[in-house]
Amino acid sequence: MQFYYDSGLLKKRVLRDLEIWLPQWYPKGRGSKGYFEIGDIGGTPGDSLKICLAGAKRGLWYDFATAEGGDVFSLWGINRGISGFGNILKDIAGYYGINGCEVPGTKEKRGSPNRRHVYLNADGDISCYIYRYEYTDGRKEFLPWNEATGKTEFPSPRPLYRLPQLMKTDKIILVEGEKCADVLVAAGFSATTLMGGANTRIEKTDISPLKGKEVTLWPDNDVPGRKYADNVAEALLKLPVSSLKITPPTPDKPAKWDVADAVAEKFDIAGFLAKAEIYKLQEKTEANGRLKIADFTGAMFAAEPPELQFVVKNTIPRGVVGLLSAMGDTGKGMLLLDLALKICQDKTGMSLKAFGNTVTTTGSAVIFAGEDTADEIHRRIYKLMPGGLNGRIDPAKLHIIPLPNTGGPFAIARKCRGSDEFCLTEEFESIKMQLKAIPDLALVVFDPLASFAGLDLNADPRAASYITGQLAALATATNAAVIVAHHIRKNDGITTPQEARDAIRGTTAIVDGVRFAIAFWANTAEEKKIFAELDQEYRPNACFKGAVVKANFGADRTVRNYIRSRARAVLEEVPVKIVPKILSAEEFDKLLIEAIGEAENAGTPFAISGISGLYENREKLPLELQDASRDFIRNTAKRLLASGQICRTSQTGNGDKKWLGIPDAGRCA
Length: 669
Hints:
Helix content is about 30%, strand content about 20%. The protein contains 19 helices and 32 strands. The strands form 9 sheets. A 9-stranded mixed beta sheet has the order 22-21-25-26-18-27-28-29-30. It has a 5-stranded antiparallel beta sheet with strand order 2-3-4-5-6. The longest helix is centred in the C-terminal third of the chain and has 18 residues, at about 460-480. The chain is elongated and about 110 Å long. It holds the Pfam family AAA_25.
């Protein structure tokens, strides 16, 4: 658990006592015209390092000999032998007897940052801080603090890192990230970086101080690192710089290997920099892009097309991303766990059913459970398979990762640092590599989608498109069915597959981005009749309808009835067809009039025919009326109109009275 310390309060306390601390830290220093002077940060006699004692800059220091500077927190850390901004705050709080607040390390309440980097302007004044937060789930977050505006935002323009030192040298190494620049400087080199990391927008940084200098690029050992170097190089060559070099490739080093790793392993940095080559800007042509149009010709489609493979016949294909949607407490997790167990049952799984059709694939399955613990999943497996696995499946093929037991869910994507674009997280990149290595992978589940997205899927269609696109790429790469569990809005009024599709929560880009969607909704209209037909005692929240509500292939779209099994606690299809009673003419008229009145009151009235016609929307009529023929329903409505039992109304006030209503509603005049 992290602790939050009020840095503003602590800063005030230290600044209040600055005249007490400075003589203790620097007994050979002296005050002079609003400044405290000393030779260097280590306390050598002299006057090149000045600490401001007055005004808004009180506590800021600058060494004119080394072009280094900082604030009162860095002074405290240096003189107390403490590194890390969070540790410095903790030490100050301990000295002054100020307690921290215990908070989780979340985005909303981050706790103390693990590291802080200071950006100075050319005069040595603080322009911006970059705070680095490291969370227990492996995530990292970088936040700027604009000293001039007092807001969490980048300054404009953004200065180069360690700018005052750059002004005094002609040879500079440009790296990726403040940490790498700091370790190079500590090793005796002049180094800088751009605020915002590998995905920064170069045009927002003032790189003019590098004009005419000798610059060597040292990118991280990965594709984003090289892209960062190329983008920076293009801007530097336009200044221009006097020379531009780049360090040689390091294929023998691990991915993401960087300057900090090199220093830690006592790598020959000077020798490596001596091997740097003159940078050659690649000409940007169509051949440099990810896609090469010439590779995609009609020859791809000359032979017989491959047969579409299914995990579940005519319902869940392989190699695509799909969606399972239902209200909370429907049992989405149980349905997906049940499917995974059946896939892992070797050939016996081929005779089993899921979602109303036959399981046609056996292989490996992976479930990322964002909300369920290992104990809960264990109990569910025993519900679905009484007695447990017991040799009925190969345990090596079943992979269930209970994220609450591993520190919480990981994010698939995030906002790129310093950009409005989206980037995959390092953890998801690792997950992708591991999934590709699993033999005969047939199913991958993310339950629920909201726990893993890392982006706002409800408000941002771009985010939804990005996430579904990345999951589609994963499905293509593994030839597995990738299924995400997602919520449906409150069930009131859902009676058709189209209404269920429309009720899937979030932006429509979620449904548009998947290749199929299966939905379940409560069957409140028929549940008591179904239990009676099955000769079972009525149970609430146990009767549902389910169907494929979106598919980009010839799917089985049959609407099926499901009952929650008492023994297995999972929804199981029941072969029940509710046979409506035979109605007299008076009973038929009464039910039709009631249905017309209910639709009118709900603001979705029927018409005699057309897209809102009674017959065209017969699934919204009482069950007893749904098997009547088109002509019988229309003729009955016309007869009721003629007798005045129903009437024509106008919904919009434009005089177009094509809708049906009842006289009691007062809209038939």
